[in-house]
Amino acid sequence: MNISAKKYFPIFVLPTLIAFLISFAVPFIMGLALSFTQFTTVTDATFVGFDNYIKAFSEDTGFLSSLWFTVKFSLISVLSINVIAFSLALLLTRSLPGTNIFRTVFFMPNLIGGIVLGYIWQVIINGILYNFQYSITSNESFGFWGLIILMNWQMIGYMMIIYIAGIQNIPTDITEAAKVDGANSFTTLFKIIIPSVMPSITICLFLTITNSFKLFDQNLSLTAGAPSGRTEMLALNIYNTFYGRVGYEGVGQAKAVVFFIIVALISLIQLNITRRKEVES
Hints:
Blueprint (H helix, E strand, L loop, with lengths): L2 H32 L2 E2 L7 E2 L3 H8 L4 H30 L6 H9 L6 H16 L10 H29 L3 H9 L4 H12 L1 H16 L3 H6 L11 H11 L4 H32 L1
Antiparallel strand pairs: 1-2
Helix pairs in contact: 2-12, 3-6, 3-9, 4-6, 5-6, 6-9, 9-12, 11-12
């Protein structure tokens, strides 16, 4: 960085730094402190130590069942989204007619808000299940697979665009040389294309993992945790604990801290693994 750029660096950084402190750092520190208290507002907090964390795991607050449901949902949705998005990207980077139209159509669901998506798919799924005298809230499996379908429909187009960008950045000389050497489609895919798009895979895995774990709007509008909280994901469980149970604000805050730690650890592990693969490739 040259001297003139250094001179004005604080001026450009200061607004962003202030926004970061106000919107993230200060609320996070306050939330972490409140997780060790019993409170109804930030002005009447009473220190209770680790009682909130003990209640979150020991009492019948549904936290562990929501955690297990969220883990199952995230595993299946991350795998299905990335496999389908990558397959579509491979298909739409070939010289086929109408590829730009298909890219636009597949991306459009990502532009729709989560609440709206949830209600749209609730109507669609219930319209099918009513023919068999069921609804999406009749059985846990209906809600689970409904959320999987919704998440795939919303995220596949977005991930597809990232994969397309990665595939299009692969030098044509490499793929042409592989063909000359007699490499088949399978070898080209696993030895050239996938290693070359590892940066895109890193980004897509990070986005799908974090979005799957943090899913809230769609869960609220599609099933609202029904039946009996068995389709309640972590974010919705924290919301219901904080706003739905009097005197459990501290427990809800403790759950939020645990939730943050879980998502942060999983994301950091994933980033570390895939970035090492980038270096190796």
